[in-house]
Design a protein that fits this description.
Low-confidence stretches: none
Order of helices and strands: EHEHEHEHHEHEEHEEEHEEHEHH
Strand order of the largest sheet: 3-2-1-4-5-6-11
Helix content: 25-40%
Number of strands: 13
Largest sheet: 7 strands, parallel
Strand content: 15-25%
Structural class: alpha/beta
Number of helices: 11
Radius of gyration: 19 Å
Shape: globular
Length: about 325
């Protein structure tokens, strides 16, 4: 298939693109290569992709309506995996406009591109952050998610609502993927595993928020990619049993779906740090701090719909995933 991957220089985008290329798909990757974090890491990810003859990279800003329109008209994609977004919960508190430009306006442009160019299926990244103030565990796609606690989460919830509208009005199959704390080799420097590893190796203290009492459903990058590929290959369908008098938030009378992709096994932050210390062979200096604004204490994915509809359940052990990350980090940054 000919597939558009937005955010192709990103953590998930690059890993997904490699997987698609290796199975023979033609991939057009776009990214704006912004400086939210080290651009050199993004360029290094892209270098892995340039050896594939069926890959083409285009530097493009998804909030540029004309550029996105020309891209869709010129390339005629069969499927789209939309990963490009302004990430980060805490960054959304200090830089809110970046989230509107990328996550709302940019997503609107992608929806319009799909609508007008006969795209067979739009899959897009949502986030576990949409569960917000929910405390009913594990988080289910059938739960109401109307109480976000950060602008980032609100923008992802808005994406799901916008996608449903296009599924309903234009019969465009859309599938939203709520990712749960993705980690692994080539990860983002603003994520906890990356920051912890760097600081521990440099003998600097690590900030442990909520006094280490967080629980996170850490999900390994390869598990995320496997779930995404399965979703891309199965366009969303309408739920024939959907009832307006008792509406199911996770499905619709339109060709619309959302799925959780998580490890279904929440781990306490202190246990996560202990595993990292073991893999590094070095103890962390911990700076214990209260819960940050916009953050949630726990995440825990109910993946029963992913298992039922796509026959897949993430399962990489935390020890394996962290060990793989540490090996990559030391090699990439030439740590003895």
């Amino acid at each position: 298939m000919k597939i558009l991957v937005t955010g192709a220089a990103g953590f998930i985008g690059a890993a997904l693109t490699i997987r698609l290329l290796e199975r023979g798909d033609e991939v057009i990757g776009i990214d704006n290569l912004n400086d939210y974090y080290d651009v050199n890491l993004k360029l290094a990810r892209l270098e892995q992709l340039r050896d594939y003859s069926q890959f083409k990279f285009i530097k493009l800003e998804i909030s540029d309506r004309d550029a996105v329109e020309k891209l869709f008209i010129g390339e005629k994609f069969q499927r789209v995996m939309h990963l490009a977004a302004q990430a980060g919960v805490r960054y959304s508190i200090t830089n809110p406009h970046a989230y509107i430009d990328s996550n709302i306006i940019g997503f609107m442009n992608i929806l319009e591109g799909c609508r007008h160019n006969a795209v067979e299926h739009l899959a897009y990244a949502s986030s576990s952050s949409v569960y917000g103030a929910n405390t009913n565990m594990p988080f289910s796609i059938h739960n109401n998610v109307d109480h976000p606690v950060s602008l980032y989460a609100a923008s992802k919830k808005a994406n799901e609502l916008m996608a449903h509208t296009y599924s309903h009005l234009y019969n465009l199959p859309t599938t939203g993927l709520r990712f749960f704390t993705v980690y692994g080799p080539w990860g983002r420097p603003d994520m906890s595993l990356f920051m912890f590893t760097r600081n521990i190796l440099e003998d600097k203290p690590i900030d442990v928020f909520n006094y280490g009492n967080h629980r996170r459903d850490f999900t390994y990058i390869d598990d995320i990619v496997e779930g995404v590929v399965r979703v891309i290959d199965k366009p969303a369908q309408a739920n024939a049993s959907w009832a307006s008098e008792d509406p199911d938030p996770g499905t619709s009378m339109a060709p619309y779906r959302v799925y959780n992709i998580g490890n279904n096994n929440p781990v306490k932050l202190l246990a996560f740090i202990e595993t990292l210390e073991k893999c590094l062979g070095k103890d962390a200096k911990k700076n214990f701090l209260p819960l940050q604004p916009g953050d949630v204490p726990d995440t825990y994915a109910d993946v029963s719909d992913l298992v039922c509809d796509l026959g897949y359940k993430p399962g990489t052990l935390l020890e394996t995933g962290i060990r793989n990350f540490v090996e990559w980090y030391k090699k990439f940054y030439r740590v003895a």
